[in-house]
Write a structure and sequence with these properties.
Elements: E1 8-13, H1 20-34, E2 40-45, H2 51-58, E3 63-67, H3 84-89, E4 94-97, H4 100-105, H5 110-123, E5 126-131, H6 135-139, H7 143-154, E6 166-170, H8 185-203, H9 205-210, E7 212-216, H10 221-228, E8 235-238, H11 245-267
Parallel strand pairs: 1-2, 1-8, 2-3, 3-4, 4-5, 5-6, 6-7, 7-8
Helix pairs in contact: 1-2, 1-11, 5-7, 7-8, 8-10, 10-11
Bound molecules: 2-phosphoglycolic acid.
Residues 13, 171, 176-177, 216-219, 237-241 line the site of 2-phosphoglycolic acid.
């Protein structure tokens, strides 16, 4: 597959952290720190109760609002759940689906994740679909099979005309919130290649070339640059480091630098082999 330049995409997943005051402070600091840069697309995903207040702060800025989950129905007797229309009304552009914390701690199945993906896309939200293997699966050489299954099931019956609103976050479960184990840039690149190959089989090469694949799992300012310069690593989904404005902004800056370098190298004349 020939190299394609895709905009780097950095997302903060605040999980079940912050309170109203911290959410406000953090969102303001990110908006102020971002300035007018356009190279990296940046999104913040606060907990549901803070979507409205963070949304107000992000309004008119270059930072988009995202949610961490939804329920795949417009409305109905689903106590405690939140619909795609409610998220859109709050100004959300994105929604994270299939996060391993929901798959593993709350028992979300591939079929349920698929239902959410289809409903979210149909409603007009952009979807960040998370996939990734556990340490046991990696050690048993099942990473590729697992990614294959999560993509095949998670993206079943997704209409081709919604694919431009879909991105994938590769998040090895063993690397999330883990200071001892994090994936090497090489491991991330390999998994992204597997994902893009599978995506091409499902939806064609053109869609696969346009697909943004983020890496997630203990991305920090000190490893972001090495990840971002890897082939096919188009950004990051960030948990812990997204709760500290300086760290999050340092990761965004690493994305800006990586995209500048990519642009420069793609505009350099290609060396052609002499004809024998
Ligand atoms: P982490 O979380 O950056 O804290 O590892 C990433 C995620 O779970 O999305």
């Amino acid at each position: 597959m020939s190299p394609a330049i895709r905009q780097k995409f950095v997302v903060g997943n605040w999980k079940m952290y912050t309170n109203a005051a911290d959410a406000r402070r953090l969102a303001k600091a990110v908006v102020d720190g971002m300035g007018a840069q356009e190279r990296v697309s940046v999104t913040l995903c606060p907990p549901f109760p803070y979507l409205a207040l963070v949304g107000e702060i992000l309004e008119g800025s270059r930072v988009a609002l995202g949610a961490q989950n939804l329920y795949p129905e417009k409305e109905g007797p689903f106590t405690g759940e939140v619909s795609p229309t409610m998220l859109l009304e709050l100004g959300c552009k994105y929604v994270i689906l299939g996060h391993s914390e929901r798959r593993h701690k709350l028992g979300e199945s591939d079929a349920f994740v698929n239902q959410k993906v289809r409903v979210a896309l149909a409603a007009g939200l952009d979807v960040i679909l998370c996939v990734g293997e556990t340490l046991e699966q990696r050690n048993a050489n099942q990473t590729e099979a697992l990614l294959d299954r999560q993509l095949t099931c998670g993206l079943a019956d997704v209409p081709a005309d919604t694919l431009t609103r879909l991105s994938i976050a590769y998040e090895p479960v063993w690397a999330i919130g883990n200071l001892e184990h994090h994936a090497t840039p090489q491991q991330a690149e390999e998994a992204h290649t597997v994902i893009r190959r599978r995506f091409a089989q499902m939806f064609g090469k053109k869609s696969a070339q346009a697909l943004a694949i983020q890496y997630g799992g203990s991305v920090k300012p000190d490893n972001a640059a090495a990840l971002f310069c890897r082939h096919g690593v188009d950004g990051a989904l960030i948990g812990g480091a997204s709760l500290i404005a300086d760290q999050f902004l340092a990761i965004v800056r690493a994305g800006i630098n990586a995209s500048q370098t990519e642009e420069k190298s793609s505009s350099m004349p290609q060396l052609t082999k002499p004809v024998a």
